[in-house]
Design brief:
Chain C: This is Ferredoxin hydrogenase. Chain C: Keywords: Iron, Iron-sulfur, Metal-binding. The complex is a heterotrimer of chains A (219), B (120) and C (389). Chain A is mainly α and 219 residues long. Chain A has 10 helices and 2 strands. A two-stranded antiparallel ribbon of chain A has the order 1-2. Chain B is elongated and about 115 Å long. With 389 residues, chain C is an alpha/beta fold. In chain C, the strands form 4 sheets. Chain C has a 4-stranded parallel sheet with strand order 6-5-8-9, sandwiched between helices. A 4-stranded mixed sheet of chain C has the order 7-12-11-10, with helices on one face. In chain C, strands 1-4 form a two-stranded antiparallel ribbon. The longest helix of chain C is centred in the middle third of the chain and has 24 residues. Chain C is globular. The chains are: A mainly alpha (219), B mainly alpha (120), C alpha/beta (389). At the A-C interface, helix 1, helix 3 and helix 7 of A face loops of C. Strand 1 of chain A pairs parallel with strand 1 of chain B, so a sheet runs across the interface.
């Protein structure tokens, strides 16, 4: 394989900022939520005791909602491209899913098809996170602001949806963190989202061959 | 060193997908709100139905006024105010009336001192 | 006197509480402490035992104390003569536990099932509801005479008169507004009147030793469990009402006994003596019902005329605070007196009305207060509904 020199700008500054804000909110919301569910005094006290922890969860939820909203409004092009990428599934994506991109040790992966800017797994995560966040938001706000007028059955329903979506999201985000920051095959991507936005061109040409071809064409 | 950057501008397809998902989210939230409002409206219909049930029962009763209840007339004539129908009789006061708040301890003393109904 | 079971009727199971904070919005007295994310608990000093939080808890984490075992023990004891009374609101809700629509009249089936459960006499709280109207209505008439300066009524209490059937309202008034207590009708609630006459009048007529009589009431209400344990409720010489079970608990007992409730005859009647009732007593279970029943009797007694139409539709409805004026031609005063009445359903709405009375601003003569929104039919002991369509 030929040596490819250079770097690829994968994530813009706005995208990285939004990712950071959302990440911090997610951690705070997750921690307070877990503390509420398991009644863990240690975590509750970390956020200033019972009353404060409750407020922290609510107002962090507001930022958690506004951050992506503001991002989408000011970066509609990026958002639209992202949506297009993650909602497009081709034969190559199915091929990736069949071998799980070679990430699972027990699945033999002799040939992994070329991928877009995001591989099939990342696409699925993107869809899951968007759907999950929407569910968290549409159940969270009523439980907070409409608790006095909601009938019990709706409180029950929103609570259950909020809880199970949270479980799924936390597990998904843990997997995301593992692959993006720890797994030796893909951790080089960590810096692109968390620090400067760049990935090695060579890495990209392997992992996101289809996207890299497009970039080269645009040169 | 080469720096590869995505070119700006989006295709029609990308625009419609982006706008579409925003619209879909809005519609989704609207549908949920509608479901929520429907459940809200249905959630206390049972109160109305139970109220209607009691009013219907009332309409079906042949006697609909308390003072015309034959057993009420009987209990006054035979027990509470012998020989007549006279509410607030002494016996009625003892058995059917009470006191509230700070007057209760005195009432209890009275009731226990009298040994209850038998001495009244 | 029986030993007092407990006066902390309503409790939150901390293990089941999901900290959703829904209960604080239905609690009429602010007795529940907590907020979203924080386990809730009940301040029993402020709690009026109404059970609204119980029937509205999305997670079924709130429970009321049970006297079912006590009732079963009494039923199994051949020495005990077990008498049961059923509140009006029970008969239009009990069927729901057996798959019937809300509001279905299962009066006869209810009496039949109580007989099958082994109660020696099946009476009706509606009888004492009529008795309540006689006493409370007469008391109101006397207060009105006192207010009008009729000689001989100087010792009567002040106007307006409040109803006293709702034990949650009584506890609330005692706790928060001791100054309003003289305005409360001194008449006991129908449940307690029943206990008192059952262990005296009925025991005498039936030739039963009142010490062997065990009075059970089936109530749509959890606060009645508190009321029956009040220390002053011993007018018969014994604890007047020995045990209270809710509509839900009766349904549970019927199911456990293997009784096919739906196939029972709906034509059965309560036993005679203290079991006959009128339509006026039936509507006690609805907000405005006590008021309407009292008006039917007060109007006829005061005017000496028979009412053509017995319904007073003006007092009906579900608005939390309603008012109406009824013009009554009072024979004794020789003039028509406008009787201003007010109905409050939902204790959280009562404060304004009470404060008006205390400040002397109130124009009402008679005020009905019921804790539960809609009246006893929506009481804390009723079947729990989660209707979605």
């Amino acid at each position: 394989m030929s040596e490819i020199k250079g770097k690829v700008l994968k994530h813009s500054e706005q995208t990285r900022t939004m990712h950071w804000v959302h990440l911090i909110c997610f951690i705070i919301l997750g921690l307070t939520g877990i503390a509420f569910y398991f009644d863990i005094a240690g975590i509750v006290n970390l956020f200033g005791g019972e009353a404060a922890a409750s407020d922290v969860h609510h107002w962090t939820g507001v930022i958690f909602t506004l951050a992506p909203l503001v991002y989408v409004l000011f970066n509609f092009e990026r958002f639209a491209k992202f949506i297009d990428t993650i909602t497009t599934f081709t034969k190559d994506d199915l091929g990736w899913l069949k071998t799980m991109g070679g990430y699972i040790p027990f699945i033999k992966a002799e040939h992994i098809p070329p991928q877009d800017k995001y591989n099939a797994g990342q696409k699925m995560l993107g869809l899951l996170v968007i759907a999950g966040c929407i569910l968290m938001i549409v159940t969270g706000f009523p439980m907070w602001l409409l608790k006095h007028s909601m009938p019990p059955v709706l409180v029950w329903l929103t609570w259950k949806i909020h809880f199970w979506t949270a479980v799924i999201l936390i597990l998904a985000v843990l997997g995301h963190f593992f692959l993006a920051a720890i797994h030796p095959k893909s951790r080089v991507e960590f810096a692109s989202m968390m620090i400067d936005g760049y990935v090695d061109a060579e890495y990209t040409s392997h992992h996101n061959a289809k996207w890299f071809a497009e970039l080269k064409k645009a040169e | 060193m080469n720096i590869f950057v995505e070119k700006s501008g989006i295709t029609r397809r990308q625009f419609f997908k982006g706008a579409g998902i925003l619209a879909a989210t809005a519609v989704f939230a609207g549908v949920l709100a509608k479901i929520g409002i429907d459940i809200y409206k249905a959630s206390d219909k049972y109160i109305e139905k139970r109220i209607a049930g009691l009013y219907t029962l009332d309409e079906k009763m042949t006697i609909r006024k308390s003072h015309e209840n034959p057993e009420i007339i009987q209990i006054y004539k035979e027990f509470l105010s012998p020989g007549e129908v006279r509410p607030l009789s002494e016996k009625a006061h003892h058995l059917l009336h009470t006191k509230y708040g700070n007057d209760i301890p005195k009432l209890i003393t009275e009731l226990t001192a009298h040994g209850g109904h038998h001495a009244a | 006197m029986n030993t007092v079971a407990t006066k902390e009727i309503i409790n939150i199971d901390e293990k089941k509480c999901k900290s959703c904070d829904h209960c604080t919005s239905v609690c009429p007295t602010g007795a529940i402490q907590g907020r979203i994310g924080v386990k809730h608990y009940i301040d029993h000093k402020k709690c009026v035992n109404c059970g609204q939080c119980l029937i509205n808890c999305p997670f079924g984490a709130i429970t009321d104390i049970s006297m079912v075992e006590k009732v079963k023990k009494a039923l199994a004891d051949p020495q005990k003569f077990v008498v049961v009374q059923t509140a009006p609101a029970v008969r239009v809700a009990l069927g729901e536990e057996f798959g019937l629509e809300p509001g279905t009249n299962v009066k006869g089936k209810m009496f039949a099932s109580l007989r099958k459960l082994g109660f020696d006499k099946v009476y009706d709280t509606e009888f004492t509801a009529d008795l309540t109207i006689m006493e409370e209505g007469t008391e109101l008439i006397h207060r009105i005479f006192a207010h009008a300066g009729v000689p001989g009524y100087e010792k009567e209490g002040p106007l307006p008169q409040f109803t006293s059937c709702c034990p949650a309202w009584i506890k609330y008034a005692e706790d928060k507004y001791p100054k309003i207590l003289p305005h409360l009708s001194s008449a006991k609630s129908p449940q307690q009147m029943f206990g008192a006459v059952a262990k005296t009048y009925a025991a005498e007529k039936l030739g039963i030793n009142p010490a062997d009589m065990f009075v059970v009431s089936v109530m749509p209400c959890t606060a009645k469990k508190f009321e029956c344990q009040r220390e002053e409720m011993i007018a018969s010489g014994f604890q007047d009402v020995d045990a209270v079970i809710t509509t839900r608990e009766l349904a549970q007992m019927i199911k456990e006994a293997g009784i096919d409730f739906r196939s029972l005859s709906n034509e059965e009647q309560a036993d005679r003596l203290i079991g006959t009732s009128t339509g006026a007593a039936t509507i006690f279970g609805v907000t405005g019902g006590v008021m309407e029943a009292a008006l039917r009797t007060a109007y006829e007694i005061l005017s000496g005329q028979s009412l053509g139409v017995v319904e007073f539709k003006a007092v009906r409805g579900r608005k939390p605070v309603r008012e109406a004026t009824v013009n009554i031609p009072v024979k004794e005063l020789g003039k028509t007196v406008p009787l201003n009445v007010c109905i409050v359903t939902g204790l959280s709405h009562v404060d304004g009305v009470v404060e008006d009375v205390l400040a002397g601003r109130s124009k009402y003569h008679f005020i009905e207060v019921m804790n539960c929104p809609g009246g006893c039919i929506n009481g804390g002991g009723q079947p729990i509904r989660r209707d979605t369509y």
